[in-house]
Amino acid sequence: MIIVLKPEATKKEKKHIIDRIKELKLTPRVLHGTERDVIAVIGSESIISQLPLEVFPGVESAMPVLKPYKLVSRKVKPDSTVIDVNGIKIGGGKTFNIIAGPCSIEGLGMMRNIWKSIQQTGIGIMRGGAFKPRTSPYSFQGMGKKGLEIFKKIKKEFKISVITEVMDTKDVELVAKYSDILQIGARNIQNFSLLKEVGKCKKPVMLKRGMAMTIKEFLMAAEYVLSQGNFNVILCERGIRTFEPLTRFTLDISAVPIIKKETHLPVFIDPSHGGGRWDLVEPLSKAALAVEADGIIVEVHDNPENAVSDGEQSLRPYKFNEMVEKLRKTAEFMGKEIC
Amino acid sequence: MIIVLKPEATKKEKKHIIDRIKELKLTPRVLHGTERDVIAVIGSESIISQLPLEVFPGVESAMPVLKPYKLVSRKVKPDSTVIDVNGIKIGGGKTFNIIAGPCSIEGLGMMRNIWKSIQQTGIGIMRGGAFKPRTSPYSFQGMGKKGLEIFKKIKKEFKISVITEVMDTKDVELVAKYSDILQIGARNIQNFSLLKEVGKCKKPVMLKRGMAMTIKEFLMAAEYVLSQGNFNVILCERGIRTFEPLTRFTLDISAVPIIKKETHLPVFIDPSHGGGRWDLVEPLSKAALAVEADGIIVEVHDNPENAVSDGEQSLRPYKFNEMVEKLRKTAEFMGKEIC
Amino acid sequence: MIIVLKPEATKKEKKHIIDRIKELKLTPRVLHGTERDVIAVIGSESIISQLPLEVFPGVESAMPVLKPYKLVSRKVKPDSTVIDVNGIKIGGGKTFNIIAGPCSIEGLGMMRNIWKSIQQTGIGIMRGGAFKPRTSPYSFQGMGKKGLEIFKKIKKEFKISVITEVMDTKDVELVAKYSDILQIGARNIQNFSLLKEVGKCKKPVMLKRGMAMTIKEFLMAAEYVLSQGNFNVILCERGIRTFEPLTRFTLDISAVPIIKKETHLPVFIDPSHGGGRWDLVEPLSKAALAVEADGIIVEVHDNPENAVSDGEQSLRPYKFNEMVEKLRKTAEFMGKEIC
Amino acid sequence: MIIVLKPEATKKEKKHIIDRIKELKLTPRVLHGTERDVIAVIGSESIISQLPLEVFPGVESAMPVLKPYKLVSRKVKPDSTVIDVNGIKIGGGKTFNIIAGPCSIEGLGMMRNIWKSIQQTGIGIMRGGAFKPRTSPYSFQGMGKKGLEIFKKIKKEFKISVITEVMDTKDVELVAKYSDILQIGARNIQNFSLLKEVGKCKKPVMLKRGMAMTIKEFLMAAEYVLSQGNFNVILCERGIRTFEPLTRFTLDISAVPIIKKETHLPVFIDPSHGGGRWDLVEPLSKAALAVEADGIIVEVHDNPENAVSDGEQSLRPYKFNEMVEKLRKTAEFMGKEIC
C-alpha cells in the first residue's frame, strides 16, 4: 500500500498514521519527495487494505499495490483449469465449447425439437432456463421444477449435459440435482449469499459478468465461489451497459484476453446477450474464437416468433448449424476441437 | 405498439404479421407512408409486447407506446404515497426524512455511542447493516443475527425505528421481525426472488437503484414488490456507474424529479454512496433537498478510521449534526419538517 | 511516481529502470516488499510522467502521486477567481449568475422579444448561438456573422453582455469582437487548437465539459487556456453520457463541489442540456444553487414550438421568470445576489 | 413520425398539432387506441423532425420512423465503397488493410528505422502524427510541418502511402498536400467545421469514432463529409468510454458488423487505442479480422520506452511482424489479401 500525504500534513498526523501501521505489525517506510511525502507499507496488503486510509487526517490518497484476488489468480495456479463435464473438457485451450438451447424451457416437445435439429453439430451441452429473471413481474417467470423435469428427460434421451440458471439460495440443492452446470445470471452476480451457496456445491458453475461490473469485481465474485471450495468456475462475458442504443449491451471483447491473463479459469462469451440481436451472433461468435475464448453459450429457438423470452436474439436451428460449420473450419485451422 | 416495416417487406410478410395480431384479438391498422409502411396495433399493449416482433420477417423495428409499469404509476394513483413508520411520515412533501447510522453494526457500544451523539438532531430512524454485501469474500461480512439483536436493544433504549438490509430470501422473515424498514441493496435489486419475498411481507421496503439500472427498470423492480401486495415502497437513488473515477458512483440527481413525476412512491437520495466521499455528503444532501427528494440516508460513524466498511464516506457525528442544522434551516424555509 | 514491479522482475530489469530514472536526474528509492518490490521516484513528476513506464520490462504498473494540472489548481492560487464582465462579477461566492437566451439566434425580433420578456428578472447576460454545432449536416447551422450583428444591436439596445459559441480557430477573432464571453462547446472541448486560440484572446471563456470527459481532463482543457495567458475561464458542467435513456445526458452534480475544491475558477451548471427536458430545468437549477455553483446558463425561447434547435429543453419566458423568483428567494436566504 | 398523445390531451391540443402538420404539407393520420391516441405523420420525415414535437401541449412522446442519414446509407448505395490509395484497395471485402507506424513522427531516422523493420510484411500505408492532440498542454504537441516534410521523404524513399491527422481547419490544405489519407481524431469528430473542410477536399478521410459517440452520430459525422462531395470516407472504431478501468477504452467490436450493415463505407478497427495496452493489440486485431472489418491501424514503435506518446500501446517491430504473419494465414484462409 502506498499512502500519499497532503503537502500540509502535520508531524502529528504522520505519526498517527505510522503508529496505526505499526499496530497492525506492518512496516512503514517514509519517503520525502520534492512536493509531498509518501508512506510505503511493507507487509501483507490484505491487512492494511481493511483500513479506510483516506479518512485519516493528512492523507490525500491510498493506492494498493497488489490485486485483491488470490485463488482465481494465475499467479497462484499458472496452469489453466480444465473442467470435465461428463467427458467434455472445458478450458485448457484444446477445445472450443458451444453450448446451445433456448432462453426458456417452454415444454418437452420444443426442447426435443430444438436438440434434434442441432445435434448434427456434435455439440454436447444444452442450455435452457427453468427459473427466469425477468424485468417485469408480468412476464413469463419460467416453468420452475417442471422445467427441470423436462431437462432430465432430454438428458436421458440424448445423452447430453445441461446448464440452467439458479436464482435463489433456496433452489441451489434442487437445481444441482438436475443440472450439470449451475449458471449464475448477470443480475445475481453480486448476490453474495448465492455465490457462497454454489461455492459449497460440487457442480461446475458458470458466472455471467454483471452489466456494470469491472473485471476486478468479476474475479472477486469468482473468488467467493472458490473460497468455499468449488474450483470449477467458468467466467462468461455477456456485454456491459454503455450509452450505445443499437445493441442491448456492449460486448467487451477485450475482457477475454485480460481475464485469461489474470486467471486460470475458462472464459466464455455469450454472443446472444452480448449484442441482443440475432444478426450479431455469428460475428461475435467468430470474434470469441479469434480472441481464444474457451467457448460460447448461444440462444437457439426453433420458432423465435413464439419464444416466450429473448426471441430477438435467438438463432433458428438452420442458422445455428451453418454458423457452427464455419466456426469448426476456423477452429480446426487453429488446432481446436469444437465440442 | 407501432410496428415499422422494412421498405422491402412483402405482402405475404405483412399478412403474416396482421394475422398474428388478429389472433391475439387486437386490431391492426396499416398506414402507407411515403417511404415505408407502419402497422399500429390497437388494444392492450401488454399482450402484444410479449411477442418478439423484431424477429418477424419484414419488420424493421417495434416501438411500444405505453409504459410497462402499472401499480407504481402516478397515473394509476395520483396522490403521493405516505408511509407511516411508527409515527414518522415518509413521502407526501411535508417532511424531509434523514436516516442515519453506520454502514455496519459493529457492536452495541458503538451503536449506542453513535445514536447518543446525533440524537440531538431529533431524527427518528437509524440505519446499520447486519448482513453485508462485500465485494471481497475476505472482508467483514456483517454480524448477522447478533447485529439484529443489537438493533433490538437500541430500538428499545432510544425509542427509534431502524432500517437494515436483507440479502437472502431465507432471511426475510428474520429481518422483518427486527427491522421497521427492509432495505434491498443495489446489488440485489434485480434479485427477483428477493423482491417477491419482501413483497409478501407487510413491512415498508427501501429499494436502492442498481448501479447500471435505468429508471424504467428501477420502477419495474418496485412493481415486483407492489404486485405481491406490499405498497409501502421507498425508492432510493444512490449513484450509477460511469467513466468518472473521482467519485465512487455518479449521483443521478435528475432521477428524483423524473421518478416523482412517474410514480406516487417516496424517493430518497443516498449521498454517502452517491459520491463515495465524505466531503460530498453535505453538498449532495443539499441538492437532494433542493430537488424535493423525500429524504436522505446517510452513513455516520463515530470513528471512521476504524470503521469495518465504508469509512471513506462516513460523516463524524459532529459534522453530521452541523449538516442537519443547515438542512433544517433550508427545509423550514421550504415549509418542510425534518424528522 | 510509484513504480510497482512484477514479482518475476530480474535484477537486470530493475537496474535498467533505475538507470533511466537517474539519467533524468531523479532519485529512485527501492522498497523491498513481502510480495514484490516498488520503486519510488523522488523529484519532478512532470519529467518522469513523460516515460511510458508500463512498457519497461519488469514493470507491472506505474502510479502518479501528483495531479497533472498547475495553473488551474487551487494549490497554486487559493483565492477564488472573480471575473468581471462589464461590471457583473462571476465567481467568488457572492453572486449566482443566471445567463439566459435561446439556443440559436433566429432573428432580431425574436431576440428582442425574448429579452423584453425576461429583463424584469434583472439579469445581465444573454446567450444565443450564431455558429451552431449540429449532429446533422441537414439541420440549421446558425446565422453566422448575421447573428453576431443581431447580438450587437441587442447589446446596445438593452445594455447587456452576451455569450456565444466559437467553433473554429478561424472565427475566434471575429467572435471576440462581438461577444463578451466566448463559449467552447462540449464537442470542441478537446479541440486543442481552438483552446490555444481562445487562450491567446483576452475575453473570458466558458468551457463546457465534454460528454465523456473526466473531471481531470476537463481541468486539463482549462489548463490549455490558462497556459496561453488567459486566466478568465468559467467551467460549465452540462451532463455526461450514460446508459440512462430518459434524460439526454446525466447531470453530474458532484462535479461542482469537486471542481470547486480543486480549482479557483468559477463553475456553472447548464440545466437545459444537463437533462435535455424543460421540466427538469427548475429542479436542476435549484440543485446548482444548493451545491454552490457560481451560476447557470439556461435556454429560454418565446416560442419553443418553432425553435430551430433545442425546443424540447427551452423554458418559456414566464416559466423562466417564475423560476428566477424562486431561485432569488433561496439565493437571498444564502446571502447571494442573483445577477 | 409517430406522435403519442397524453391520455388527457384535449381536442384543442390535438387540432393544434394536426394544423401544424398540415401547414408543413404532410398528412396526419389519427389512431384512437384503447388507452391513448396516436398521430402518424405521412410524408417526408426530415421536414417533421425539425419540429420539437415534445414541446407541444398534449404530446407525450414523438418517435421517428426513419434513419437520419442518407448518403452514407447502404439503402442509397448497396455496393460497398472501394477506395483506391495509390493502387491499394480499401473496402469491398477482398483486402484486409494494415496501416502501421508510430503515434508521433519523432524524426527522419526513427521513421526510416520503423519502416525498414516492418516493410517485409508487404503492407503499403504508414501512419504517424505531425499535429498531436494531447490532453496536457505540457506534453509534446507534434513536429508540425517538419513532421510532414519527414513523411514526404519517407513516401519517396519507400514508395508508400501515408496517413496523418489534421486538427485545425487552417491546416487542411497543408496536410492534404502531404498526406494520402486525412485522419480526423476521436476528439475532433464533432468539430463540424473541420468535417466540412475535409469534405471539400478530394483526399480520402479516416474518421475515428468519438469516445462517447453513438453509431448513429458517427454515421452523421460521415454524412457531413459526404454531403460536401467527398465520398472517400473510412470509419474507424477505436474504443468507447465505459466504467472499466483495466483498458483505456472499451473496443465496441459489435460496431463493425452494425456499421457494415448500415453503410457502404469501409470500416477499420484501431486495436492500439481500443485497449490502450500493447498486449491487447494482437487479440483485438484477430477479432477485427474475424468480424470482417476492412482493416486495422496499429501503433508500432522501434523503441516504445522512449516514445514521446502512446508508448504503452505500441508494438515493437518484431512483435508486429509476427502478428501480421498470423493474421495473413487467417486472412488467406478467409480468401482475403493483406495489404
Walkthrough of the structure:
4 copies of one chain form a homotetramer. With 339 residues, chain A is α/β, with parallel strands linked by helices. The first copy, chain A, folds into 2 domains: 2-63, Phospho-2-dehydro-3-deoxyheptonate aldolase, domain 1 (Alpha-Beta Plaits); 83-338, Alpha-Beta Barrel (TIM Barrel), CATH 3.20.20.70. Chain A contains 11 helices and 15 strands. The first copy, chain A, has helices at residues 11-23, 45-48, 108-118, 145-158, 172-178, 192-199, 215-227, 255-262, 271-275, 278-290, 317-333, and strands spanning 2-5, 27-32, 37-42, 59-63, 83-85, 88-90, 95-101, 125-127, 161-165, 181-184, 205-208, 233-237, 267-269, 295-299, 337-338. Chain A has an 8-stranded parallel barrel, surrounded by 6 helices. In chain A, β7, α3 and β8 (125-127) form a beta-alpha-beta unit. In chain A, α3 (108-118) runs parallel beside α4, α6 packs across α7 and α10 (278-290) packs parallel to α11 (317-333). The longest helix of chain A has 17 residues, at 317-333. The radius of gyration of chain A is 23 Å and the shape is elongated. The mean pLDDT of chain A is 93. The interface between A and D is large, with 36 and 35 residues.
